[in-house]
Known about the structure:
Layout: E1 7-8, H1 10-17, H2 21-30, E2 36-37, E3 43-46, H3 47-56
Antiparallel strand pairs: 1-3, 2-3
Helix pairs in contact: 1-2
Amino acid sequence: MTTDTQFLTPKEVAEILGVHQKTVHHWLRTGKLAGTKISYRAWRISRSALEDLVTQNSNAQPKNA
C-alpha cells in the first residue's frame, strides 16, 4: 500500500498529533481536517490529508533558496 492510499482512524490521528480524539472529530466536522465518513460514527482520514493539516498549521518558515 502506498502512503497516499493509507487511511487512519481518528484515534490514530489523535495519537500521532498528541491531541484528544474529540479534537480530531471537531476538526473533521468543521472541515479543518479532510476525512470520509464511512458510517454514522466512523471516519477515515487519508495520510495525505493528515500531512496537509500539519503543513498548513506548521510554524516553520520556508527557507529561501
